[in-house]
């Protein structure tokens, strides 16, 4: 099979623009205005004539005039057809009598639709597919396009992650007022955060199953749990118990319901981006939806203290959060379930089931070199976020200042991730990003030990800002890297395992930190109720984990860092992460 590279958009068997063919868009079942225009592929592959000899420019023009449709042209009595199935390129030439000649020279009758694998490097196909622009040929060829409707689902998934995390942070920023309102100690209020994190583990198996079916069932399940959980929390806050305080047991039940919703949306970003986005946009899409979760926590840290000036305001704050959560959850029922056609060849690859995935997860050292630090640092982040109010206030900081510190931790992190994600989308330098971010994160936890004692906002604000920027940049990188290393495992498997570890350790770290809390007045603690020992514990854990991800690609295992989902033009169908 002869072949050459050409930039002509009208060459035989070409890989064309995503919006160049009205017939193609029509056949995919999507209105043309829904198909997003994308840049042409960096290079396009021209399939040479099936007979020997070269063609003149005039003959090439004549062939273009005889064009029958996208990906189908006449050439000296034969028709060439580019067929893409499950990410594989198949080429056949159809003779004038209707028989089919495959690239190995075999001849089949006109009804024979078996096509032999064509020897075309995957770079040309993937370049065009990454731009969402592989055209459809006759006979059921796969169309690789991106659709504008994907943004509706992406925004909705982002909103759900925001409100789920805000629900988690409804009580922690005003723990002292919530404790007074419900007639419980602050340690009981901390359990509202801890139970929320542990609930993740209960619904995680159902999350993997539902996300294997697609993101929409998982998103709808989360929306239902958010709606019910928020109004149950309000019922417990509004209806007083026998002692005249808010009904803490009912509030805890509602909090657990919202916690059960968390894995359905927190594990969905990688699955959603894999289904709707190209390789050039997946890291950014995963970053937006994944980092929306801590952004919701930042909103809770910043807004809730302004809502609650005293114990009497707790019930109204729960009501306001329930209304906002309901408004954000309802559109989930109307998002599209899946694109009419996949965005890339990897979108057509059959995904392994959970039963098939577990042996691969157990046997991959590189996967655990990522999951372990990811889970530990997510757990530490959840612990510090939940207890930040109690960390700073014993040293004279106000609840508003503690809320601003929590907001800086997350907002600066979002900015850092917004800068890093597009760069990593293009370079795929995942290993280098992990090895740079992890030591910086550990050093931030070490430095934060001495920040509350300064009794000035500058120190905590500065350290938390750096901690947020490095932590948030790491989250989408680790999630996408896990997907690349374990492809064709369905993306929700590794993301759910990683997040489940983070939520479990977050709950454990909160319990340990609460146990390390200094005594109150009259115990000799300076200041009373400080969490200095908890900060030392967090720093030690963060430092101990540093060598784990630094071992990626070491000891002769660099060949294990294969980017299985990202195609390359070397014929292997894979590339390595940049060290």
UniProtKB/TrEMBL annotation:
GO terms for molecular function: transmembrane transporter activity. Residues 1-112 are annotated as: Disordered. It is found in: Membrane. It is a multi-pass membrane protein. It comes from the Eukaryota. Keywords: Membrane, Transmembrane, Transmembrane helix. One of its GO terms (cellular component) is membrane. The keyword Transmembrane helix applies. Pfam families: MFS_1 (PF07690). SUPFAM superfamilies: MFS general substrate transporter. The chain crosses the membrane at residues 151-169, 189-211, 218-236, 248-266, 287-308, 314-335, 365-384, 404-424, 436-453, 459-481, 493-513, 533-555. Its main location: membrane. Residues 7-32 have a biased composition (Low complexity). This is Major facilitator superfamily transporter.
């Amino acid at each position: 099979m002869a072949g050459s590279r050409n930039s002509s958009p009208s060459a035989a068997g070409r890989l064309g623009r995503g919006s160049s063919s009205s017939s193609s868009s029509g056949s995919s079942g999507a209105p043309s205005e829904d198909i997003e225009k994308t840049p042409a592929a960096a290079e396009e592959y021209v399939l040479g004539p099936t007979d020997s000899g070269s063609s003149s420019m005039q003959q090439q023009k004549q062939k273009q005039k005889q064009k029958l449709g996208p990906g189908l042209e006449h050439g000296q009595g034969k028709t060439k057809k580019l067929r893409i199935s499950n990410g594989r390129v198949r080429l056949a030439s159809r003779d004038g009598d209707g028989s089919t000649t495959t690239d190995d020279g075999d001849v089949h009758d006109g009804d024979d639709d078996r096509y032999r694998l064509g020897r075309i490097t995957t770079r040309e196909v993937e370049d065009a597919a990454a731009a969402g622009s592989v055209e459809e040929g006759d006979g059921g060829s796969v169309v690789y396009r991106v659709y504008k409707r994907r943004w509706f689902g992406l925004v909705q998934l982002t909103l759900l992650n925001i409100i789920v995390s805000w629900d988690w942070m409804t009580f922690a920023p005003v723990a002292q007022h919530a404790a007074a309102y419900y007639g419980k100690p602050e340690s009981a209020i901390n359990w509202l955060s801890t139970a929320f994190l542990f609930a993740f583990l209960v619904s995680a198996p159902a999350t993997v199953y539902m996300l294997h079916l697609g993101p929409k069932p998982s998103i709808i399940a989360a929306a239902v749990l958010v709606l019910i959980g928020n109004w149950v929390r309000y019922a417990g806050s509004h209806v007083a118990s026998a002692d005249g305080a808010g009904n803490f047991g009912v509030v805890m039940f509602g909090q657990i319901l919202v916690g059960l919703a968390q894995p359905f949306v927190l594990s969905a970003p990688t699955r959603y981006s894999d289904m709707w986005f190209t390789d050039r946009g997946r890291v950014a899409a995963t970053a937006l939806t994944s980092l929306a979760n801590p952004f919701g926590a930042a909103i809770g840290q910043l807004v809730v203290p302004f809502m609650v000036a005293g114990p009497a305001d707790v019930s109204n704050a729960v009501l306001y959060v329930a209304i906002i959560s309901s408004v954000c959850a309802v559109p989930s029922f109307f998002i599209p379930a899946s694109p009419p056609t996949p965005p890339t060849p990897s979108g057509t690859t059959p995904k392994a089931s959970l039963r098939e995935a577990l042996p691969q997860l157990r046997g991959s050292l590189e996967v655990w070199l990522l999951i372990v630090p990811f889970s530990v640092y997510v757990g530490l982040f959840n612990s510090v976020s939940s207890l930040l109010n109690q960390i700073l206030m014993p040293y004279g900081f106000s609840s508003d200042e503690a809320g601003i510190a929590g907001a800086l931790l997350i907002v600066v992190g979002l900015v850092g991730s917004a800068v890093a994600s597009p760069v990593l989308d293009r370079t795929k330098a995942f290993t280098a990003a992990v090895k740079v971010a992890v030591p910086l994160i550990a050093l931030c936890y070490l430095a934060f030990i001495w920040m509350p004692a300064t009794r000035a906002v500058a120190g905590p604000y500065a350290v938390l800002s750096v901690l947020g920027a490095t932590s948030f940049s790491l989250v989408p990188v680790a999630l996408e890297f896990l997907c690349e290393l374990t492809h064709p495992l369905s993306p929700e498997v590794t993301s759910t395992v990683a997040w489940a570890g983070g939520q479990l350790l977050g709950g454990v770290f909160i319990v340990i930190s609460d146990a390390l809390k200094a005594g109150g007045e009259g115990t000799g603690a300076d200041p009373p109720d400080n969490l200095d020992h908890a900060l030392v514990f967090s720093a030690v854990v963060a430092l101990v984990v540093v060598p784990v991800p630094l071992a990626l690609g070491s000891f002769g295992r660099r060949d294990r860092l294969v980017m299985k989902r990202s195609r390359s033009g070397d014929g292997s169908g894979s590339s390595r992460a940049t060290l």
